[in-house]
Specification:
Blueprint: H1 9-12, H2 14-18, E1 38-40, E2 44-46, H3 54-70, E3 73-77, H4 83-97, H5 101-107, E4 113-115, E5 130-135, H6 146-172, H7 179-184, E6 191-197, E7 206-211, E8 217-222, E9 228-232, E10 235-239, E11 246-250, H8 252-257, E12 267-270, E13 277-284, E14 291-292, E15 304-305, H9 306-320
Parallel strand pairs: 1-10, 2-3
Antiparallel strand pairs: 3-11, 4-5, 5-6, 6-13, 7-12, 8-11, 8-13, 9-10, 9-12, 14-15
Helix pairs in contact: 4-6
């Protein structure tokens, strides 16, 4: 029998796919992705302004902080990551996903290759996607894919510095020094996630179910297919792809650290019936022991470690089928 590259999504989740009634009785944010969604353009920030005079530099920093407060998402251009690296990353990523399903399971380290949603109990909880979730310290050990390992190391090095720069700016705009991020968000705790969203014939299924990110910052490089949507003022918006830009979004840890000044916004990925979609995300994370404490009083959230936060998220996903997140830690 010919080996296929596709993960066995249809076979594994056949019971859910056969039971359309499983979409009933779920929360509003978990409803099927069938409604028409208005397209939006995220705030676009030119980071080359950071290298100009003081007024231009301060204007750029203010735009970053404002977008993080109002949208929780923004786009950056002239970000310092070469088009050559981005294109090479995309090309080699596509090649890796074309490998047979068994090879993808076998060659990457245990737990790195992920697909579907093992905890799903209804269609809106099912994510129609596959991904390689790779801690930065494990990139060099991808011996079966030496070419992409080298490219990922190049990409990770440049995008890590960008994430640190943005975190420092956001801290500075709140009147705080940013040594916290350099000290706690190191290569051994951050990771890359290469995503593929296969074509999906069923409109009730998301490519990635609604969620917020459990980190400080996420940096996303996506293709031009589209599919990323975010929730703003109680309404879903489709993010218009920009081939020159990287997408930045605030994570839960930055919202807690900033005492709700910066917003970790719920977002999702919708599937396409005929075209596959690719993206690569970098996640700025601290060690599990790192304590997260609001940087002003009165604090909205009680102090917690990143490990405690992750453990609570995993418990909720296993028990409820979805993430609760920061509301669990409100004072």
């Amino acid at each position: 029998m010919e080996s296929t590259a596709e993960p066995p999504l249809q076979e594994t989740y056949k019971a859910l796919l056969d039971s359309k009634s499983s979409i009933n009785n779920v929360g509003a944010n978990m409803q099927p992705v069938t409604e028409l969604v208005e397209e939006c353009e995220l705030p676009l920030i030119d980071l080359s302004m950071l290298g100009l005079g003081e007024s231009e530099r301060e204007k750029c920093k203010a735009e970053i902080a404002e977008a993080s407060q109002e949208w929780g998402f923004f786009q950056v251009i002239n970000h310092g990551i070469s088009e050559e690296i981005l294109e090479k990353m995309r090309s080699e990523q596509v090649d890796v996903f074309k490998k047979s399903f068994r090879e993808k399971e076998r060659v990457f380290p245990a737990g790195t290759y992920r697909w579907g949603t093992p905890s799903a109990t209804c269609l809106p909880q099912l994510s129609w996607s596959e991904a390689f979730h790779v801690p930065l310290i494990d990139i060099s050990s991808l011996g079966g894919f030496t070419s992409i390992s080298s490219t990922m190391e190049q990409f990770a090095g440049t995008v890590s510095e960008l994430a640190q720069k943005l975190a420092e700016i956001l801290a500075e705009k709140m009147g705080h020094k940013a040594t916290f991020f350099r000290e706690n968000c190191v290569p051994s705790t951050c990771y890359l996630r290469m995503n593929r969203y296969p074509p999906c014939p069923i409109s009730e299924i998301s490519g990635l179910m609604p969620h917020t990110d459990s980190d400080f910052l996420t940096i996303l490089h996506q293709d031009q297919i589209g599919g990323l949507q975010l929730l703003k003022d109680g309404k879903w918006f489709a993010v218009k792809p920009n081939p020159q830009a990287l997408i930045i979004n605030i994570g839960d840890l930055f919202q807690a650290w900033s005492n709700d000044v910066y917003k970790s916004v719920e977002h999702r990925v919708v599937t396409n019936k005929v075209v596959e979609r690719f993206s690569t995300a970098y996640f700025l994370c601290p060690s599990y022991e790192t304590r997260i404490q609001s940087c002003m009083e009165p604090s909205v959230y009680k102090e917690f470690s990143f490990g405690e936060f992750r453990q609570q998220v995993q418990h909720d996903v296993k028990k409820l089928g979805y993430k609760v997140g920061l509301p669990r830690f409100i004072v």
